[in-house]
Structures are given as C-alpha cells and as structure tokens.
Specification:
330 residues; alpha+beta; two-stranded antiparallel ribbon
Length: 330
C-alpha cells in the first residue's frame, strides 16, 4: 500500500499517464477514422465498371504546358515577338498585338511532352511551314478562332473534360468550344466525311484503353507554337491507369505528308477532385465574331483602347479574295 507523500505522487503520476494514454488513443482513433473515410472514397473512385474494366468516369484535366508548345522550350515574352534592343534571341520583346497583356501574354517554359529525343520529325518543307505558322500565330491558330480543337489537342488544353464510359462507348465532352468525341468499342459505320475530331475506334489491351483515330480534315494544330498536321493524320492513343486519380495518356502520331516517321507524346491526366465538380461550357464562338469578321464591317467597330500607360489603335485589313477564301474555308 502507498501512504503519505509518496503514495500521493504515485497516484498523480498514474492518473496523468492514464489521461495521456487516453488522449493518444483518441488521436490515433480519429486519425484512423479519417484515413478509413478517405480510403473508402478512394476505393469508390477506383471501383471497376460492371464489365470489369478500369473506371475512367469523371472529370479530368492535363496539368502541363503542352498546349503552348509540345516540345521543350524556355519561357518567352510572348507567343509573337520582335527584336529588342540587343540582337539576341533571348533579348526579344513582345510584339505589338500582345504587348498590352504583359505577363499574361507570355509563354511559360516547359520540359516538353515529346518522348525520345524530344524532336518532332518534320519533313524539310513542313518544318518551314511550321516556322511560318508560329510567326503568324494570331492569324492562323484555329484555337483563336474557336474552331473545334481536334485530337490530341483537346486532351491537353487548359480546360477540363468529362469521360462517360459504357461497355460499348467512351464519350468525352470538352469545355472548349463544346467539343466532343465518341470512342467506339463496338462495330459501327464509318462517318460520311472527315472531321475536326476524327473517327475513334477503341479496344482494351488488359487495363489499357487503346484507341485508333483517323479521318481528320487536316485543319487543326497540335499547339500554339505552329505544330500542325494534314488530313493524313493517324493516331494511336493509350489510356493506362496510374493511380485512382491519374491516367497515363500516350499518343503515337503518324502523318506521311508532314513527318518523316511516327513520333510520340506522353503525359498524365488528373482527375478533378473538387466537391460537386462539373463541366462548365466555354462557348467561345460568339466571343470571336469581331476577331474573325470585324474587318468585313462597313464601319470598323473596335478601333481604339486607352489605359493609363498605353494606347492601342487597331487598323483592320481585308486580304485578297483568294487569301480570304483560304482563311475562312475552314
């Protein structure tokens, strides 16, 4: 038996130890509970579909700079630039059309998504056209006109897209320009004409969805750097689950009219995990009407903008009839 001061001290220590153990147990229990809850959510998201295939249903988005330029590149002051004070490539400055945008008009650097040596194997004449495209980005990029983005570009634009999956179809709905595609896992008739988004036929190779895409109209680009293709484009896409919330997306690109050999891009796609996440339309067609057709107005509408440090004057030009047809036949 413990008596006197010693017993009192021992009882206090025993009581303190009991409280400490209880607190630790409560904390551990709460931590396990939270972990189990998150784990349950995770398991729900990773559940396979009724036919046993990986469940890609959900809203996804790429998180990289591929939409600016598929290849590795350093940061640039603008998508279109002009010589600066010094005659060096790194000393170029934003050209007039993007100067007023400041940092928002710049191009972030990237390690690139082209596999292997990182080069796109253009034919010589095609490489010259790619360079010309980049110099005339504002006039030529289909994205600025809100045209359907095509595949693979739609997959890595900076906007989310939704996958709805069934045993016979995988449907993808894209934010930009209300674009959509259907990957057919069953036998269907081919489309009557070539299209922006192509014709997609898929099959499962284990847990990888393999998609063959063809019948493009040749009017899309791959990015904002002027990389392009013709109507002979043929793609083989591979969608492979990495984790619950990530898919490895790989595309082998072949176009004998433009490239000397096939080449491949690869990147992860990430699930959007916000509560109540949903696809919100970006119907940009009406936003670009003045950009596209303002120069055809009898009286020019957008002429002048003035801020505190800069004034911008715009003079619209009407190309020759032949060039006008080329610009708008898309």
């Amino acid at each position: 038996m413990l008596n006197g001061v010693g017993g009192s001290v021992m009882r206090s220590l025993f009581k303190g130890s009991t409280v400490a153990v209880a607190l630790v147990a409560a904390i551990v229990s709460a931590t396990i509970s939270v972990w189990m809850t998150r784990r349950a959510d995770r398991v729900t998201r990773t559940a396979r579909t009724t036919d046993g295939k990986p469940n890609f249903n959900g809203i996804w988005q790429a998180n990289n700079e591929a939409y600016w330029d598929l290849q590795a590149h350093e940061a640039r002051p603008g998508a279109v630039t002009q010589p600066g004070v010094y005659p060096y490539p790194f000393a170029r400055v934003p050209a007039a059309p993007v100067l007023a945008l400041g940092a928002a008009g710049g191009v972030p650097g990237s390690l690139g998504v082209v596999t292997g040596d990182g080069e796109i194997p253009y034919k010589p004449e095609a490489a010259a056209l790619k360079k010309e495209n980049a110099e005339h980005w504002i006039d030529r990029d289909p994205e600025l006109k809100c045209y359907l983005p095509g595949i693979p570009r739609a997959m890595y634009m900076p906007y989310p897209f939704q996958i709805v999956q069934s045993p016979t179809k995988v449907h993808m709905a894209f934010t930009f320009s209300n674009a959509a595609r259907t990957i057919h896992l069953d036998q269907v008739d081919e489309p009557p004409d070539d299209t922006y988004m192509g014709y997609s036929v898929g099959h499962w190779d284990g847990d990888t969805l393999v998609v063959d895409v063809s019948q493009f109209n040749g009017k899309n680009w791959f990015d904002r750097a002027g990389n392009y293709h013709s109507d002979a484009l043929h793609l083989v896409e591979r969608f492979t689950p990495i984790t619950v919330d990530a898919i490895q997306y790989e595309v082998t690109i072949e176009d004998p009219n433009v490239f000397i050999r096939p080449w491949t891009i690869s990147m992860p796609l990430y699930r959007r995990l916000e509560k109540n996440v949903q696809l919100i339309e970006y119907r940009c067609v009406e936003f670009v009407e003045e950009f596209l057709y303002g120069h055809l107005r009898k009286q020019q509408l957008v002429k002048h903008w003035e801020g505190e440090t800069m004034a911008v004057d715009i003079t619209r030009k009407i190309p020759s009839s032949e060039r006008l047809h080329e610009l708008y036949k898309q």
